[in-house]
Design brief:
By secondary structure, this protein is of the alpha+beta class. It has six helices and ten strands. The strands form two sheets. The chain has an eight-stranded antiparallel sheet with strand order 1-6-5-7-8-9-4-10. A two-stranded antiparallel sheet has the order 2-3. A hairpin with a 4-residue loop joins strand 7 and strand 8. The longest helix is centred in the middle third of the chain and has 17 residues. It is globular.
């Protein structure tokens, strides 16, 4: 099941989601990020690169996550006018249609709660929009208990911010059951 959540309610209920708002007085963006315990950048082994949604699902199931909440850090619609009007890439057209079928369109700027049954399909379409729309760079997702914060980079890499020590222990125990490997980015924790 997919449930839309108004932006204000989502921000109140899931206070560890990153936020960004433009401040006119200083002519700059003001950012909020939660305190983190560990910070990982992961990628898939070459032969599994096209399996990102299924590997995220495997990881979330191993972590006993049954719902994910998605929200853009900036207050803007999920689907931009440009992305909605594009007709040059069939996977993107299908992804936009998928979101429209769940009423995630036009001006919707809120959060989306996705349950296990729909996660893989949702993440697959989410990844397509991430890869094709440069303005879709600020969307994150978090588990309902707010232990893990996820971000899919347009390159297919996955950023995971672990928000407490117990969750980190659980994460390190379960990541080895997936096809994810360390991206070896500087200033990040290592999975092995």
């Amino acid at each position: 099941m997919i449930e839309k959540i108004s932006r204000d309610i989502c921000i109140i209920k899931y206070r560890k989601l990153p936020l960004c708002e433009y401040e006119k007085v200083t002519n700059s963006n003001v950012y909020y990020y939660p305190e983190i315990h560990s910070f990982y950048w992961l990628k898939l082994q070459k032969e599994f690169e096209k399996k990102l949604p299924s590997q995220i699902i495997l990881l979330t199931r191993n972590l006993n996550i049954d719902k994910l909440i998605f929200l853009g850090a900036m207050n803007k619609p999920w689907i931009s006018k440009l992305t909605e009007s594009r007709k040059d890439y069939k996977p993107l057209i299908k992804a936009v249609e998928y979101f429209k079928s769940h009423k995630i369109e036009k001006r919707f700027n809120g959060g989306v709660k996705v349950e296990n049954k729909e996660m893989e399909n949702f993440i697959r379409n989410f990844q397509i929009v991430t890869e094709c729309d440069g303005g879709f760079f600020d969307f994150n997702f978090i588990d309902e208990n707010e232990n893990y914060l996820f971000y899919i980079h347009y390159s297919g890499e996955l950023k995971i911010l672990v928000l407490n020590e117990n969750a980190n222990t659980n994460f390190l125990k379960n990541i080895i059951q997936t096809k994810f490997i360390d991206s070896e980015r500087e200033n990040t924790n290592r999975i092995r």
